[in-house]
Design goal:
- By secondary structure, this protein is an all-alpha fold.
- The chain has one domain.
- Helix content is 62%, strand content 0%.
- The protein starts with 7 loop residues before the first helix and ends with a helix.
Length: 90
């Protein structure tokens, strides 16, 4: 079973985590955000990069712990979904 407990919410503010989700998603989708977009949330780039690193480490460690591969990037997710759909059709 995947454990969803993490210290991320203790280490980073909600605006930082929201910006981290936006940052990682737009990076995977190769979308360009306007400069200074994080200023709306009063969050710095260094905080977002730090939270993103924590988040990725958490997912990779959790995947190792349960012995499964958790897709982190968009290509990994697409491949995982393709395999799942192929398995469901058999």
């Amino acid at each position: 079973m995947i454990r969803l407990r993490t210290t991320l919410t203790c280490l980073h503010t909600p605006p930082t985590l929201a910006c981290t989700a936006i940052f990682l998603t737009t990076r995977d989708l190769q979308l360009k955000l306007p400069s200074g977009w994080m200023d709306v949330f009063d969050v710095g780039l260094q905080d977002v990069v730090h939270a993103a690193a924590h988040l990725k480490v958490f997912y990779h460690e959790e995947a190792k712990r349960v012995g499964m591969e958790i897709p982190v990037t968009l290509p990994e997710l697409e491949e995982s979904l393709r395999k799942k759909r192929a398995g469901d059709n058999q």
